[in-house]
Amino acid sequence: MAVRDSLVAPVHRDPLSAAAALVGHQFARPALLREALTHRSAVPARVVGRGRSVSSGGAGSNERLEFIGDRVLGLLIAEWLAERFPAEQEGALGPRLAHLVSQPAIAAIAEELGLPDLLAVSAGEARAGVRQRATVLADATEALIGALYLDGGLAPARAFIRRAWTAAMEGMTAPPKDPKTGLQEYLLGRGLPLPNYEMLRSEGPPHDPVFIIAVAAAGARGEGRAGSKRAAERLAAADLLGQLTGRRA
Questions:
Q1: Four-way CATH pick for 179-245: 3.30.160.20, 3.30.70.3340, 3.90.550.10, 3.30.390.30
Q2: What is the pTM (predicted TM-score) of this model?
């Protein structure tokens, strides 16, 4: 008896070739690229004794590559920032780094690259719109970077990152301020009480949750949705701060 939906082929007819062209690297081990494009839901269950099926536990999905790619991305963005802003110290470079490797920033880059069309997900998750989730897109992008690193080392990973992140890097003139900090400073500067954050609910499967968090202050309310509570709080703060200052975040 099957316990998972059948695999849905990626939207693109030749996802491996398209992904290789996207990252600008010819893989010596294409299996790494295939793994980077495989969402956990697309990994079939293992059949054990007497025909019982058990979860793969994520083995064969892009989760391990995402773990590696996350570290590689942080290293190479930090290296780039140090080159681009040689006069800045950690206090300014840190917020820049946090912004560039944040889930929303990575997901936006993934969308621009057309990565959603290349992902292999289960039929059920495809119908639920998993290809458009920020957490899934960010994880897949980091998995691609992890695959690049394992197949070719830092050089191809660096080349891809510096192409894909160019607009985001060049768009930062001043170090970005964390939205939660910005909201707190806005309220304190006007003698208003500090904001109150509330987790409304979580959605999605246990292995891929989406948290919805609200924040209220000064008679207004903002909301954020993300794959981690911290990221959802930041998005909620940005939403509320945009309302209070008259601009949408």
A1: 3.30.160.20
A2: 0.72
